[in-house]
C-alpha cells in the first residue's frame, strides 16, 4: 500500500462511507445501555408514590403523605426516600472512573458487556428486595451499570458512525433513554393497581432490557479506534472496511492511526487533559453536563408524579401525567435526530434554552399564585402547569438532552477522549445525584422559588451555548481541534504555541509520512 501523506488526511474532506446495516444494528444494540439508564430514571419516580412500596420501606413517608394537613410542598421531604433515587448516581460516579480505564485498556465492547451484567444483578436484587439494604444494594449495582454504560455507549457510537451521521446515530442513545423513561412510566401506571407487589414488577422489569443488552453486546463489533489503539491494526482496518461498506477506507484508517500514535505517546491521559490545549474541551465537555442537569429536567423525570400530587392531582392522574410528558420526551428526541446534523448543535441549544426559561418562570409564577401551604390547586392553573411541563420537556429533548452527550463524545482527540469523557459523565452523575438528593428538600424550603433557581441556571446555559461552544456539526471526530477549536473566537488562543498538539502531532506526522500506512 502506498504511503499516505498526512496533508491529504487531515484536510477536512469527509471520508468515504456508507451508512451500513452493521453500524445501524450495533448503534441500536449499544443504545440499549441508554434504555437501561432511562428505565432506572423513570421507574423510581412512580415507585416512590406507590403506597405498598412506601409502607414496606418508608413507613414514615407513608404516614406523612396521608396526614391531611401536611404542607403541600413538604409531604415527600425525606432523606431516605431521596437516597433511594440518588444512590444509583452515587455508584455511577465511582463506576465511570473504572469504566474509563476498562474502556481504554480492554475496549468499548467489554465495557458495555460489564454494564449489562451489573444491570441484570441490580434488577434482580431490587425485584426480590426484602429490606432497605437489599433495595439500596440493587440500586448501587444498577448505578455501576449506568456508569459503565454511559461511559462506553456514546463513545462507541461516535467512533463507529460515519461523520455525516454521527449526530443522528449518537442520539439513538438519548432516544432509548427517553424510551426507557416512558416504558417505566407506563409500567408504573399499570403496576400501581397490582397490590401489594406491583412495585416488584416495576423494579424487576429492568431485567428485560438488561438481558437484551447482554446478548446484543456479544454480537457488536469493537470500534476500529479502540482496536488500533490496543495494537490490533489489521483487525482495526478489517472492521473499518466492514462497517463503512466501502473498500477505500485508507484515508480514515491513516487518520485513526495518526490519532492513535499520538494517543499512545500519552502515558498519562489525565495529566495531559490538564494541559492548556486540552482545557477548552475539558471546560466545555464538563460544563455542558452540569448545565444539562441544572435545567431542572430530572425534577420532572424523577419527581413528576410527586410534583403533580403536590398540586392536588390524584395518584393515577399523576402517573398518567408522567406518561404524557414521557411520550413528549420520546417524540421530541426524534426531532433532534432529524435536525442535529442539518441545523447544527448550537442553534438547537440556544432555542431550547429560551423555551425552557419561559416554562420554568411561568411554573414558578403559577405555583406562587395558586399553590399555598395546604390548599388544593384550582383545576385550570394545575392543567396549565402540566402543559408547561410538557413544553419544557419537549425543548430539553430536542436539545440539551441528546446534544450534551453528543458533544462531549465528539470534541476530544483520541488521546484524551476516554479521560475527558469520564469527566463529562461523572459531572452529569454528580449533578444528577445532587438534584435527586436535594430536590424534595429544596422544594420544601424554597417552595415555588425553586423554579426561579432553575431559571437562573438556564440563563447561564443560554449565554454559554451561544458564545462558548464551537459548532461541531459534520466535522470528522479526529479533526475537531483544527476545524472547531482553533477557529473559535475565544478558545483559539489556547492553541497558540501549542506544544502538546503541535510538536507531538508534527513528530508523529513526520514518522507516518515516511513509513507505509499499513
Ligand atoms: C439526562 C438525564 C435525563 C434524561 C431525560 C438525559 O440526557 O442525562 O439525566 O433524565 O436525559 O430524558
Automatic annotation (TrEMBL):
InterPro entries: MFS_dom, MFS_STP/MST-like_plant, MFS_sugar_transport-like, MFS_trans_sf, STP/PLT_plant, Sugar/inositol_transpt, Sugar_transporter_CS. GO terms for molecular function: monosaccharide transmembrane transporter activity; symporter activity. The chain crosses the membrane at residues 23-47, 80-102, 114-134, 169-187, 199-221, 282-306, 318-340, 347-372, 384-407, 419-440, 446-469. Keywords: Membrane, Sugar transport, Symport, Transmembrane, Transmembrane helix, Transport. The keyword Transmembrane helix applies. GO terms for cellular component: membrane. It is found in: Membrane. Residues 26-473 form the Major facilitator superfamily (MFS) profile domain. Its main location: membrane. CDD domains: MFS_STP. It is a multi-pass membrane protein. NCBIfam families: SP (TIGR00879). PANTHER family: SOLUTE CARRIER FAMILY 2, FACILITATED GLUCOSE TRANSPORTER, SUGAR TRANSPORT PROTEIN 2. Belongs to the major facilitator superfamily. Sugar transporter (TC 2.A.1.1) family. This is Major facilitator superfamily (MFS) profile domain-containing protein. The lineage of its organism: Eukaryota, Viridiplantae, Streptophyta, Embryophyta, Tracheophyta.
Amino acid at each position: 500500500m502506498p504511503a499516505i501523506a498526512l496533508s491529504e488526511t487531515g484536510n477536512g474532506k469527509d471520508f468515504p462511507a456508507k451508512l451500513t446495516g452493521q453500524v445501524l444494528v450495533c448503534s441500536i444494540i449499544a443504545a440499549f445501555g441508554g434504555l437501561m439508564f432511562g428505565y432506572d430514571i423513570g421507574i423510581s419516580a412512580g415507585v416512590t408514590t406507590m403506597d405498598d412500596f412506601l409502607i414496606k420501606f418508608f413507613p414514615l413517608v407513608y404516614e406523612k403523605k396521608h396526614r391531611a394537613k401536611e404542607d403541600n410542598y413538604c409531604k415527600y421531604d425525606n432523606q431516605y426516600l431521596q437516597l433511594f433515587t440518588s444512590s444509583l448516581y452515587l455508584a455511577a460516579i465511582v463506576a465511570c472512573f473504572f469504566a474509563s480505564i476498562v474502556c481504554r485498556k480492554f475496549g468499548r465492547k467489554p465495557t458495555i458487556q460489564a454494564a449489562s451484567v451489573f444491570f441484570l444483578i441490580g434488577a434482580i436484587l431490587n425485584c426480590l428486595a426484602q429490606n432497605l439494604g437489599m433495595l439500596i444494594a440493587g440500586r448501587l449495582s444498577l448505578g455501576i451499570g449506568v456508569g459503565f454504560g454511559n461511559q462506553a455507549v456514546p463513545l462507541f457510537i461516535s467512533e463507529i458512525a460515519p461523520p455525516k451521521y454521527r449526530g443522528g446515530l449518537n442520539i439513538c442513545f438519548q432516544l432509548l433513554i427517553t424510551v426507557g423513561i416512558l416504558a417505566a412510566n407506563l409500567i408504573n401506571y399499570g403496576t400501581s393497581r397490582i397490590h401489594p407487589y406491583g412495585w416488584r414488577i416495576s423494579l424487576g422489569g429492568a431485567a428485560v432490557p438488561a438481558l437484551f443488552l447482554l446478548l446484543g453486546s456479544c454480537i457488536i463489533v469493537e470500534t476500529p479506534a479502540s482496536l488500533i489503539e490496543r495494537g490490533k491494526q489489521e483487525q482495526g482496518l478489517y472492521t473499518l472496511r466492514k462497517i463503512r461498506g466501502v473498500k477505500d477506507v485508507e484515508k480514515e484508517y491513516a487518520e485513526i492511526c495518526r490519532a492513535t500514535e499520538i494517543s499512545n505517546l500519552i502515558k498519562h491521559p489525565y495529566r495531559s487533559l490538564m494541559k492548556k490545549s486540552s482545557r477548552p474541551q475539558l471546560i466545555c465537555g464538563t460544563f455542558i453536563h452540569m448545565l444539562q442537569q441544572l435545567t431542572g429536567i430530572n425534577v420532572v423525570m424523577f419527581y413528576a408524579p410527586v410534583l403533580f400530587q403536590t398540586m392536588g392531582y390524584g395518584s393515577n392522574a399523576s402517573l398518567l401525567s408522567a406518561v404524557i410528558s414521557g411520550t413528549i420526551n420520546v417524540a421530541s428526541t426524534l426531532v433532534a435526530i432529524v435536525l442535529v446534523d442539518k441545523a447544527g448543535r448550537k442553534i438547537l441549544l440556544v432555542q431550547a434554552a429560551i423555551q425552557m426559561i419561559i416554562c420554568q418562570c411561568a411554573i414558578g409564577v403559577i405555583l406562587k399564585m395558586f399553590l399555598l401551604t395546604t390548599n388544593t390547586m384550582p383545576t385550570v392553573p394545575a392543567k396549565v402547569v402540566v402543559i408547561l411541563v410538557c413544553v419544557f420537556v419537549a425543548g430539553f429533548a430536542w436539545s440539551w438532552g441528546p446534544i450534551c452527550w453528543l458533544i462531549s463524545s465528539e470534541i476530544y482527540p483520541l488521546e484524551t477522549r476516554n479521560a475527558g469523557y469520564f469527566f463529562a459523565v461523572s459531572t452529569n452523575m454528580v449533578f444528577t445525584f445532587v438534584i435527586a438528593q436535594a430536590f424534595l428538600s429544596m422544594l420544601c424550603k424554597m417552595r415555588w422559588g425553586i423554579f426561579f433557581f432553575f431559571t437562573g441556571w438556564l440563563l447561564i446555559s443560554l449565554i454559554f451555548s451561544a458564545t462558548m461552544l464551537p459548532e461541531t456539526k459534520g466535522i470528522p471526530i479526529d479533526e475537531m481541534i483544527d476545524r472547531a477549536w482553533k477557529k473559535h473566537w475565544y478558545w483559539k488562543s489556547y492553541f497558540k504555541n501549542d506544544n502538546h498538539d503541535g510538536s507531538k502531532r508534527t513528530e508523529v506526522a513526520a514518522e507516518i509520512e515516511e513509513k507505509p500506512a499499513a
